[in-house]
Design a protein that fits this description.
alpha/beta; Rossmann fold; five-stranded parallel β-sheet; two-stranded antiparallel sheet; 7 helices; 7 strands; globular; Uridine kinase; ATP binding; cytoplasm; ATP-binding
Length: 213
């Protein structure tokens, strides 16, 4: 039976490789077996008709790189207990895939992404807003390791992209959204105290709305 109660939306943001995913996964694991889903903003990069070499030059850390209207629309559908066809982004091709993933509505939605707090319409849909605050040096080291191992990118490519777009866009667009956060989490998923506080608050809201804990 589908609940008529409004799902809880938890927004988890921070810079690239800040530990957003670790925090989101830590919350997810605490509610293992419960009605919960993870929605990544990265899935909502815009489709581009540009040639591959031109797509590689796109500033993927700018708010305009995302199809925020589609993300807002599909999040609203989930809040109304409607299933969505979530887009799939192909990092190797630098473009949205033709595939989609069917996502059923759940009681708890974790929305994760670097710029989810930059858009007022998205912020208004969130019950809890979390900013994962991690030092720039740690983030670039994590990004190098991740992109070389899982995305097949060269060290020069990663460093150039970081210096030209990732770091300046973080300070221009991402870091200022910290002021909208209900909770700032230093150092990501290793901050167990912050994770425990989040889990306790989520359980409290679930109880208030008569949703299953």
């Amino acid at each position: 039976m589908i609940s008529s109660q409004k799902p809880i939306v938890i927004g988890v943001t921070g810079g690239s490789a800040s530990g957003k995913t670790s925090v989101s996964r830590a919350i997810f694991d605490q509610f293992s077996g419960h009605s919960l889903l993870l929605l990544e903003q990265d899935a909502y990069y815009k489709h581009s008709d540009l040639p591959f070499e031109e797509r590689k030059k796109i500033n993927y850390d700018h708010p305009l790189a995302f199809d925020t209207a589609l993300l807002h629309h599909q999040l609203n559908q989930l809040l109304h207990r409607e299933a969505i066809d979530k887009p799939v982004y192909d990092y190797a091709d630098h473009n949205r895939s033709k595939q989609v993933v069917r996502v059923e509505p759940k009681d708890v939605i974790i929305l994760e992404g670097i710029l989810i707090l930059a858009d007022e319409s998205l912020r208004d849909l969130m019950d809890i807003k979390v900013f994962v605050d991690t030092d720039d040096d740690i983030r670039i080291i994590r990004r190098i390791k991740r992109d070389m191992e899982s995305r097949g990118r060269s060290l020069d490519n990663i460093i150039n992209q970081y210096l030209k777009t990732v770091k300046p866009m973080y300070h221009q667009f991402v870091e200022p959204t910290k002021r909208y956060a209900d909770l700032i989490v230093p150092e990501g998923g290793g901050n167990q105290v912050a994770i425990d506080l989040l889990v306790t608050k989520i359980k409290s809201i679930l109880s208030e709305r008569g949703l299953k804990e």
